[in-house]
Design goal:
There is one protein chain. The chain has 477 residues and is of the alpha+beta class. It has one domain: Alpha-Beta Complex (Amidase signature (AS) enzymes). 39% of the residues lie in helices and 13% in strands. The strands form four sheets. It has an eight-stranded mixed beta sheet with strand order 8-10-9-14-15-13-11-12, sandwiched between helices. A three-stranded mixed beta sheet has the order 1-3-2. α9 links the parallel β11 and β12. α2 packs antiparallel against α3. The longest helix is centred in the middle third of the chain and has 27 residues. The chain is globular and about 55 Å long. The chain starts with 8 loop residues before the first helix and ends in a 13-residue tail after the last helix.
Length: 477
């Protein structure tokens, strides 16, 4: 089976149903392409050929993606008996003792999990670089980042290994890699997609699971197959008014969209990102929508500090757990320099700061909803990235200059974390190519539970200005 990457997952599943290709042939093709991609891009942490073939022998069922090869990220989705390192030396020998609810739903949908993609240590940065696995490269230009933290997923999909792959997002980690590599990346609403067991939320509920894909319909159909409350879940996203796939196939009514030009921390788009915004705004107007520039008045300082407090407290807990497991103190052999700074800070943060952090996020959700209601807006529009994908080495977790690193990471995708902090869904679409031939995605955001509206506008744009069929220079299918 050649040119696997020329078909989306929905098309491949249809070919399997019609017996035009077998799941074994698809797996063989994916394994061959994965080997090439690993050599060129370093996007896999593990290949699970044996378990994948066992899955085929057991039967793939009749789910919507029966027989389609798939990869999960080395962060967020455990599969019993298989490694889960979180991109960290501290967990390099870790084997999952149970499977995630989401992994079980993937297999029920018929997806054949044959590989695990790279992540930076605990998803702590927006470029997929780690001491454990090295640098993952962008198929559009291997000197540049494929984004993070789901950069292994974006690199393998954008290079044609498979049409979609699992990704997770705690501050932009689905949308940023999608934006860097020319893919569709939706971050679902809080409570939409399972995170456990046994812990049904991560990063105080900011983190979510879904995928990066070439087509809108794959993303929508996968969400149809996987959403819903999990055992132990304390909340659930509002039920969708229709199937997500149906929404993606239906044009929305004329919408009023707020073009958001200044991020909460004051960052504005560079000329390339601005050109992308202007292009999509013009297209939206042609499609009958109203676009007007408007900026919600959020407390950028409180939100930025809140992310630091939240991540630091989380990493301190991770380090405590590892120290109990090892029976010794952890240090530079276990965690990378930026991670160690988070751990050190997390062990000194007063408990009251966690309450202030949560309050800042709650205030942002209220302020943003009032902004939408008072302006009569249906959607928000912003660049996913403030500038094109940066070169590798700029955003790694072992910086030469911590001050410069802080400036670089806080300015790279500053609109993204707001949707994690509020719990709202957002989608990055591949709507701009830079003069240097690098993708630069544009992002739409919607109120809690309105993935259907995001898929509707995304499907309409995809039909009006198709991006499928464009191949990255590193294409391995």
């Amino acid at each position: 089976m050649k040119d696997l990457g020329d078909h989306d997952a929905t098309a491949l599943a249809e070919m399997v149903r019609k017996k035009q290709v077998s799941p074994a042939e698809l797996l063989d093709a994916a394994l061959e392409s994965a080997s090439k991609a690993q050599h060129e891009l370093n996007c896999f942490s593990r290949i699970f050929e044996g378990p994948a073939r066992e899955q085929l022998r057991a039967g793939v069922g009749d789910g919507p993606f029966a027989g389609v090869p798939f990869a999960t990220k080395d962060l967020g989705v455990k599969i019993k008996g298989l490694p889960m390192t979180n991109g960290s030396n501290a967990f390099k020998d870790n084997i999952a003792t149970e499977s995630a609810t989401l992994a079980e739903r993937y297999m029920k949908a018929g997806l054949v999990i044959f590989a695990q993609t790279t992540s930076p240590e605990f998803g702590l940065t927006t470029s997929t670089e780690s001491e454990l696995y090295g640098q993952t490269r962008n198929p559009w230009n291997p000197n540049h980042t494929s984004g993070g933290s789901s950069g292994g997923a974006s690199a393998c999909v954008a290079s044609g290994v498979i049409p979609m792959a699992h990704a997770s997002d705690g501050g932009g980690s689905i949308r940023i890699p999608a934006a860097c590599t020319g893919l569709v990346g939706l971050k679902p609403s809080r409570g939409r997609v399972p995170m456990g067991p046994p812990i049904s939320e991560n990063w105080f509920g900011l983190s979510t699971n879904h995928c990066v894909s070439h087509s809108v319909r794959d993303s929508a159909a996968l969400l149809d197959a996987t959403h819903g409350q999990e055992p132990g879940g304390r909340y659930i996203a509002p039920p969708p008014p229709t199937s997500f796939l149906k929404a993606a196939q239906t044009d929305p009514k004329p919408l009023k969209i707020a073009l958001w030009p200044v991020a909460p921390n004051g960052v504005t788009p560079d000329p390339e990102a601005q050109a992308g915004l202007e292009r999509i705004a013009a297209l939206l107007s042609e499609l009958g929508h109203t676009v007007e520039e408007a900026t919600p008045q959020l407390d950028g300082d409180a939100l930025g500090k809140g992310m630091m407090v939240m991540v630091s407290s989380f990493m301190a807990a991770v380090a405590d757990e590892r120290e109990a497991y090892f029976g010794r103190k952890t240090g530079p052999d276990d965690f990378e320099p930026v991670s160690l700074r988070f751990i050190e800070l997390g062990r000194t943060i007063p408990m009251s700061e966690l309450v202030k952090t949560n309050n800042a996020f709650l205030n942002a959700a209220y302020t943003l909803e009032m902004f939408m209601d008072e302006g009569g807006y249906d959607l928000l529009l912003a660049p996913t990235l403030s500038r094109p994908p940066v070169e590798l080495g700029v955003l790694g977790l072992n910086p030469a200059d911590f001050g410069k690193y802080g400036e670089d990471i806080s300015s790279f995708a500053p609109w993204c974390p707001v949707f994690n902090q509020t719990g709202w869904p957002a989608i990055s679409l591949p709507l701009h190519m830079t003069k240097d031939g690098l993708p630069l995605g544009m992002m739409f955001g919607a109120k809690l539970g309105r993935e259907d509206l995001l898929y509707s506008i995304a499907g309409q744009i995809e039909r009006a200005a198709p991006w499928t069929g464009k191949r990255a220079p590193v294409w391995v299918s």
